[in-house]
């Protein structure tokens, strides 16, 4: 029966292939070398393809006469006519290398290179080209290949068994490419909507790989993949340009076009810039093709090749190729990614016509120059009707005015103009189930012999796996006893008690258990402690956007935390309950627990445990409070404003070390444990009696500018590189309950923080804060304004706002304060002037931290840091050297190993 089905399938496949008509062939150079990934365009139709790695192509076409255009980067475009009857016709092409000729205006000694006037015009028109396309629909074929070339000897020896299993089960082997093919239907609408629907996907490992979003970017953008584009308005600060020559080829309307090849030379090569060449079409100043190379922060190099084709007069990158190679942690690998677009619908923005001429005012200014008043409030098409030639400056101003008017029109239509990207990715349920016949009808690029072999092995592995699953399933059905013994993920077991577990009670509820064994800590107040927690989470309703994203519209959390202190021989803990609806959350917490005197927790319990036991330095200072706390937080106006408030009633108690003669694991000379009562320069004693405190705490924060968002699969998130300053206001009031020792004060604070780019991978960050106690009738040490100090050689936390050498509580104040933090990150500063240093990922920074309180004597830290302490291994660590100053007098020098990672709670 199986043989009959196989023969029937083979006959069906034969009928299908013989019924098709089309064109196939090979593209080579004049020297006989195959040209991989060359563009093959069917002129006058939306059809097109690219050759595979062996230079072969195949495209399905109905019978008829066609003009076929062959393109390859660095070679002359060739056009051939062909007539297709029944079956597949063969049409090979041989391409000649482009013959560059120098322009009539030659570069003379002391004169500017002609490349600069070309690039000024291209840069001025870059945004114009981006806005030309109103909308389009296309079928996109992508193929990627990734090959591990070599593994460290130690890894091969240690994981030899696992590597053999990976080859057997997942078709992975050193030196053998891992393949992925995807066919997607995509659509784009101005200004920012991009939709993808994956209709077919095939992988030599059997896993689905999502297409990379890198290709959605355009070199007309100021940056692409976090690197400065040669067409950025800031390009001349980062690149030098050199004119290499001009070549000719047929244009979209049959007329010959001239294309100038420009060498792109970075002033300092490394991450964030490109090198290579870009070809610009004369008069239109659009990109014809490019070949650029860049490198990322771990030393992996990428080569990008784009070849553009005219679609209704607009030059679009229909043929894209990306290659990467390098090594990381001793693993050498290489890979490529190709993308071919076939447009099914293409609409040009009527406001942008291609007959606008751009004059370089530095060479030959136009006959008429417009002022800002001439442009403001005018429609772009009205200006173009009156005048055909514009200066580069005027053209940029006109495009900005157009975008301003379009943005206002969108506002009038009640559209959300803060969304800069709206992307979605949907996978068809049949994408991974497409047959070979289906793939042969869709595939734009024929498979190579090696790829066919890889797929056959993957298919055989998949069939073997399915047979194993079937046998296992049949065996399971026959053995009901074995099925009963099979462990359920929700079944109670000893390992779950020891190490914690999350039990899924239903689709909307779960029970989360945190084992005390995972939270063993030590400090001089509690001694050793164990902490465990149990939380019940229940989602009231879930909004399903697609199968990749589910958003809970309502969520309950009820639970408790218990902590046993072996030194004090006491059990403390608290219970909590909260409800969240979208961005609004209300919570109730109460119990008896220990907290740090600084509520911002300047040192984590985990790190304090290490410093206390190993280095005899007990930095963490604790007090106890019995409390009940009601809190509310919300982010109204589409998350543009954040509001939070809490009302807490507490009975607070000062604590001492649980024993006087405490001994560390290691006895250090000239060191001893300090009291739990810290020293402070403003008061004689930081001790306090047992007292009550009713505290209202209100905080509001907002961006001082328009926050921009991205939407991915329906999920709205603020952009990480949002450069609007953040303003935060805080008001804290202790309300007296009438008792003699009750806290009673009013405190206000304002903070502004900002982070913005100053160049390629360079950034300036600052945070400024100031505050005062409006009244200080009764202020206890837990109510003081505390600062983010550090006394250990490992610096953790926010690198901008954390002091490096400031004692934790020495300058805490109950009066007024001002603090400033500035951190400048440099891609190129001192040792990073060396290209090799930049290529391995090192980055330098300078920072200044300042604190004014009545007792601080203008405390200042000035420091230098080097990010990437161990390049390519621990890039998140930095080494720092810091000098201390008070009243402009030098106090000493310190060193820190810094990290942005946070340990513990």
UniProtKB/TrEMBL annotation:
Keywords per UniProt: Carboxypeptidase, Coiled coil, Hydrolase, Protease, Signal
Residues in coiled coil: 388-415
InterPro entries: CarboxyPept-like_regulatory, DUF5686
Pfam family of the protein (one): DUF5686
An annotated Gene Ontology molecular function: carboxypeptidase activity
Signal peptide per UniProt: 1-19
Region (Disordered): 470-489
The protein's name in its UniProt record: Carboxypeptidase-like regulatory domain-containing protein
The species this protein was found in: Spirosoma foliorum
């Amino acid at each position: 029966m199986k043989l009959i089905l196989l023969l029937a399938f083979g006959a069906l496949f034969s009928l299908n292939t013989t019924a098709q008509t089309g064109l196939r062939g090979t593209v080579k150079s004049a020297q006989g070398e195959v040209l991989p990934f060359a563009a093959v365009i069917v002129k006058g139709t939306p059809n097109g393809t690219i050759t595979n790695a062996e230079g072969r192509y195949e495209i399905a076409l109905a019978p008829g006469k066609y003009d076929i255009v062959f393109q390859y980067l660095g070679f002359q475009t060739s056009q051939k006519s062909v007539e297709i009857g029944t079956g597949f016709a063969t049409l090979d092409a041989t391409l000649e290398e482009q013959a560059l000729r120098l322009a009539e205006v030659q570069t003379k000694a002391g004169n500017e290179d002609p490349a600069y006037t070309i690039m000024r015009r291209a840069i001025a028109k870059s945004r114009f080209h981006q806005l030309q396309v109103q909308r389009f629909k296309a079928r996109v074929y992508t193929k990627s290949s990734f090959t591990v070339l070599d593994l460290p000897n130690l890894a091969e020896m240690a994981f030899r068994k696992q590597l053999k299993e990976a080859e057997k089960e997942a078709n992975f082997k050193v030196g053998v490419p891992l393949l992925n093919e995807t066919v997607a239907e995509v659509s784009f609408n101005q200004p920012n909507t991009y939709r993808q629907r994956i209709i077919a996907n095939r992988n030599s490992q059997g896993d689905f790989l999502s297409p990379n979003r890198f290709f959605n970017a355009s070199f007309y953008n100021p940056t692409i993949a976090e690197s400065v584009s040669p067409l950025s308005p800031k390009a001349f600060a980062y690149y030098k340009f050199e004119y290499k020559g001009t070549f000719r080829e047929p244009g979209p309307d049959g007329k010959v076009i001239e294309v100038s090849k420009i060498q792109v030379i970075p002033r300092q090569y490394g991450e964030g810039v490109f090198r290579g060449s870009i070809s610009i079409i004369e008069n239109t100043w659009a990109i014809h093709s490019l070949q650029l190379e860049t490198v990322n922060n771990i030393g992996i190099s990428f080569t990008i090749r784009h070849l553009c084709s005219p679609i209704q007069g607009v030059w679009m990158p229909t043929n894209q190729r990306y290659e990467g190679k390098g090594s990381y942690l001793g693993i050498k690998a290489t890979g490529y990614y190709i993308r071919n677009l076939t447009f099914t619908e293409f609409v040009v923005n009527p406001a942008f016509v291609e007959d606008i001429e751009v004059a370089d005012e530095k060479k030959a200014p136009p006959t008429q120059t417009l002022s800002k008043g001439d442009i403001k409030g005018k429609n772009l098409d009205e200006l173009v009707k009156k005048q055909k030639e514009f200066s580069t400056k005027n053209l940029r101003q006109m495009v900005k005015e157009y975008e301003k008017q379009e943005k206002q029109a969108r506002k009038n239509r009640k559209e959300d103009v803060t969304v800069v990207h709206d992307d979605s990715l949907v996978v068809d349920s049949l994408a991974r189930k497409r047959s070979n016949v289906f793939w042969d009808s869709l595939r734009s690029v024929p498979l190579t012999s090696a790829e066919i072999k890889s797929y056959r092995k993957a298919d055989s592995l998949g069939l073997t796996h399915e047979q194993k699953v079937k046998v296992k399933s049949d065996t399971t059905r026959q053995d009901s006893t074995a099925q009963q013994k099979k462990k359920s993920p929700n079944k109670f077991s000893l390992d779950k008690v020891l190490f914690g577990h999350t039990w899924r009670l239903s689709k909307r509820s779960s029970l989360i258990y945190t084992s005390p064994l995972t939270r063993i800590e030590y400090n001089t107040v509690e001694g050793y402690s164990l902490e465990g927690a149990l939380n019940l989470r229940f989602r009231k309703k879930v909004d399903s956007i697609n199968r990749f994203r589910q958003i809970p519209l309502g969520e309950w959390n009820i639970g408790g935390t218990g902590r046993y202190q072996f030194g004090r021989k006491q059990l403390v803990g608290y219970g909590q309950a909260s409800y969240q609806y979208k961005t609004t959350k209300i919570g109730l917490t109460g119990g008896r627990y220990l907290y740090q005197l600084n509520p911002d927790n300047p040192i984590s319990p985990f790190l304090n445990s290490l410093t206390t036991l190993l280095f005899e330095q007990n930095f963490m200072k604790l007090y106890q409070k019995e409390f009940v706390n009601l809190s509310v937080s919300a982010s109204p106006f589409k998350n543009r404003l954040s509001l939070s408030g809490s009302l807490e009633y507490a009975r607070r108690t000062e604590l001492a070390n649980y024993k006087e003669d405490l001994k560390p694991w290691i006895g250090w000379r000239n060191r001893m444990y300090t009291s739990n009562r810290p020293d402070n320069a403003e008061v004689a004693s930081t001790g306090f009696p047992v007292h009550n405190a009713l505290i209202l705490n209100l905080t509001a924060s907002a961006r001082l500018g328009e926050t921009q968002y991205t939407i991915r699969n329906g999920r709205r998130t603020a952009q990480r590189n949002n450069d609007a300053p953040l303003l935060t206001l805080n008001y804290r009031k202790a309300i007296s309950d009438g008792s003699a020792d009750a806290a009673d004060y009013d405190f206000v604070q304002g903070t502004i923080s900002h982070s913005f780019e100053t160049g390629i991978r360079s950034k300036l960050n600052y945070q400024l804060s100031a505050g005062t106690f409006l009244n200080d009738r009764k202020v206890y040490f837990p109510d003081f304004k505390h600062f983010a100090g550090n006394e250990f050689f490992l610096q953790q936390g926010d690198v901008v706002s954390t002091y490096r050498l400031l004692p934790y509580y020495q300058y805490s104040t109950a009066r007024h304060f001002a603090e400033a933090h500035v951190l400048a990150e440099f891609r190129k500063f001192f040792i990073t002037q060396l290209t090799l240093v930049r290529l391995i990922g090192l980055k330098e920074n300078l920072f200044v931290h300042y604190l004014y309180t009545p007792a601080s004597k203008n405390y200042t830290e000035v420091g230098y840091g080097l990010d990437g302490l161990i390049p390519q291994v621990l890039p998140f660590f930095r080494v720092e050297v810091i000098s201390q100053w008070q009243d402009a007098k030098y106090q000493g020098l310190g060193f820190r190993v810094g990290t942005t990672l946070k340990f513990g709670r």
